[in-house]
Predict the 3D structure of the following.
Amino acid sequence: MTISATASAAPVADSSDVEFLKSLKWQPGTDAELRRAAAQGDVASFLKLWCRQASASPRLPDEWLASWGHVEGADDALTSLFASRLPTGRRSSKTAIHASPGWGVRVEAFLKRLRSSDAPADAIVLLVGAELCARLARAGDTENLWPVWRAVLEAARSHQPARNAIPSTRFDLKLVEQGELPYVLGTVFAPLAESAAWSRAGKKFLIEELVGRTDSDGTPHAELLPVLPGWIASLARATGWSRWAGIPLWTGDAEGMLESLWERAIPLCQHDGRLSLSNGHPVSPLPVLRWGATTLELASGATSALLANLSRPQTRRPAGRSRSSSGGGLMPSSQSDWARLAVLRSDWSPQADSVVVSHHQSAPGLEVAIGGFPILQGPWQLELQAGSTVLELADEWSCVCWQSDADLDYAELQMVGPKNCRVERQVLLSRTEQFLILADTIRNAPGEPLCVKSTLPLAPGVTFQPEKSSREGWLQADRRRARLLPLAYPIDRVLSTPHKLTSLPGGLEFEYRVAGRGLFAPIIIDWNPNRSRAAVEWRALTVTENSKIVPAGHAAGYRARLGKLQLLLYRSLKTPQFPRAVLGHHTNSETVIATFGKDGTAEPLLTVDDDE
């Protein structure tokens, strides 16, 4: 959409105020007194009538204007506007509200930025100007209102959207440019003739973006995560403007989807208010989520309570955490095939253990937080070579299995490679025992031997400290530690292995070399403080089928003991003809993850059947 006016409705920039006012075209039904004052070129009377109409509108939240100071792209000339609030009362005979100290200087700085020949007005500048017009009008500040009002209107009419200059992945900037800006301009300048076209175009784009980039349950598409704070900020402000003007913006199911978007976005926040997998985007989501929750009048519940807790000043948190926020039966975890996003979360507290997995790219995005503090963060890289062939990964993965219950959250990703090669990644988060299982599985590789390089991305500030006598290690950041057990490696360092574990800048590379065409390589990460000093051991298990030992490329099993916690992990790599046995447990399932009871029998936590 191009924000412009017809030639007859667009006065030249060097016309006098009287000529400018007389040339304006109006919507049918505009107040007769206002139109009469404009037709006569009576600027003073026109401004009084404009302000009188604006005085009946609700007050805009102070946080809106302040928010622009934290928006990427807002320059120094604009941020000077955010130092003080605009007066919010109305003009009285005793008080000159518009004469607030220093405000005229700030308006002059804004006008200079707006009219700069070497920096044409961009969307953010125009949106700030539109908001100033609304605030000054409501405050009755006619002295500062007129120069801003005229300058913003002239700039809006000549504005050319910078569509080609916006990177394809900057969905937030596109929404501001093509949705929020025309909609807000159409709202603030509603009596003018051209406002209807602006409003329609902005509304259409806003609705298309909301519906097109969120799942039916409100889950944002994974590609939005790096810019999600700015994207939802634009939706929140547009919604606020519609409430301010008393004109509905969202139609049909769109408003319900908007509320669901907030419900899904809040659990993506970590204890410090940062958004998972946001890749260091500078816009904080918490102010945005707070404005939206207030604007949308979200009902109180688990997500609202989490938002309130996240919004409180954060200090160093103890290792323990409260699990009082149960959510009233609402699960804090979610998964969307369409959005390519899975959120595994232990509870509704800011100190929750969580895993966020995005799988819309060849390298899934992974963020693991313990007690709200990230230990893994970034792309979960994978390289495969079968025989002499380097396998090219697909552009995205599918989530082929999802389970969430009181004990655990489980997600399984799959990528189908050449000649029906199956590459799978398993993620299991215990919601009660404070451990995580991450596994790489290769089935039916198109050649042998098989070489797999899998890299876990360490979060900033996290280091890996290997044990000297065994192959376990510790992920450590500040006073937080998590034990890492690579089960595919022999526990004793004196035992040789073709596998390698290399600590790289910002990540851990696990290299596996096997003679067959299949691999099951699970990693356990444990941070339960009651097991931090407990003895650890693990070993590979023998798997049998019809009383015969199954080759390593057909199935694999491991047993791990961490203090009193004992786990069995089994994975079928080739469909069996008969039930298989592993450590006395018989199964036809593709995946079994179990604990051992007091009598030594395996008690499955998770079973996944083969889909072939």
About this structure: The two ends are 49 Å apart (CA to CA). Residues 1-11, 86-101, 315-328 have pLDDT under 50 and may be disordered. Residues 171-312 form one domain. The longest helix spans residues 171-188.
